[in-house]
């Protein structure tokens, strides 16, 4: 049994690193965070904390990229996601813990391999592609916090400029996170722990901003992938074990 202080310390380190990576690469906060946070707090509380911290990360980043946000394109991804979000919340309420662990692991793996599926990006183009991508992202965000893959696939398929997409997606993440917090509620962990995690997330964004001049995005991306693969695998193993023990 891990001491509560150790749990908070590990979670703060993870949130700090995840926020720094997101600031450098534009994506990856929840992908890095979700494995460790679910292992530390469980599938329900872990994702609830994750979406709250995702909101903090996005709100901290938005002022830094405000001028590059493309609001019209972002809106066509946001409104379908808001309509689909309640179904993600319903799924979380009806699934038992082992199934939730397996669902989170599956979504994490999908997030990691989605970029290697050309047909996915090819299918997500135009207004219809935006609706499908936005709805999928909204559903996934509430269920697991992992809404990046369909949005990234749409960006590739529609040839969205990477800089403007990375800016616009912060607004999308922030909106989906607000909806997720509204549907899932606030974490039940002690308020002092949550404030420490919020501070670690904001600190990671600030440090990541300073490091953008020195750390190549490729290096940050490799770190993101290594942590995410490890986290998804451990969550998968825990879910499988939970089915039998």
UniProtKB/TrEMBL annotation:
Keyword Membrane appears in the UniProt entry: yes
Membrane topology (UniProt): Multi-pass membrane protein
Keywords on record: Cell membrane, Membrane, Transmembrane, Transmembrane helix, Transport
Residue ranges of coiled coil: none
InterPro entries: TM_pro_TauE-like, TSUP
Main localization category: membrane
Name of the protein: Probable membrane transporter protein
Source organism of this protein record: Microbacterium pygmaeum
């Amino acid at each position: 049994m891990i001491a509560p202080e150790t749990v908070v310390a590990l979670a703060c380190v993870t949130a700090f690193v995840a926020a720094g990576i997101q600031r450098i690469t534009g994506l990856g906060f929840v992908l890095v965070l979700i494995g460790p946070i679910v292992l530390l707090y469980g599938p329900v509380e872990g994702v609830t904390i994750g979406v709250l911290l995702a909101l903090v990360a996005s709100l901290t980043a938005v002022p830094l990229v405000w001028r590059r946000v493309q609001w019209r394109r972002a809106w066509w991804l946001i409104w379908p996601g808001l309509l689909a979000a309640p179904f993600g919340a319903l799924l979380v309420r009806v699934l038992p813990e082992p199934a939730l662990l397996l669902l989170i692991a599956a979504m994490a793996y999908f997030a990691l391999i989605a970029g290697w599926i050309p047909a996915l990006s090819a299918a997500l183009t135009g207004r219809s592609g935006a609706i499908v991508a936005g709805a999928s992202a909204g559903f996934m965000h509430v269920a697991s916090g992992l809404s990046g893959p369909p949005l990234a696939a749409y960006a590739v398929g529609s040839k969205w400029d990477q800089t403007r997409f990375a800016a616009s997606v912060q607004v999308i993440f922030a909106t989906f996170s607000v909806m997720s917090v509204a549907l899932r509620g606030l974490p039940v962990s002690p308020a002092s722990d949550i404030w420490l995690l919020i501070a670690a997330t904001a600190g990671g964004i600030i440090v990541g901003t300073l490091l953008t001049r020195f750390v190549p995005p490729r290096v940050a991306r490799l770190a993101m992938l290594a942590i995410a693969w490890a986290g998804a695998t451990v969550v998968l193993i825990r879910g499988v074990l939970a089915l039998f023990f």
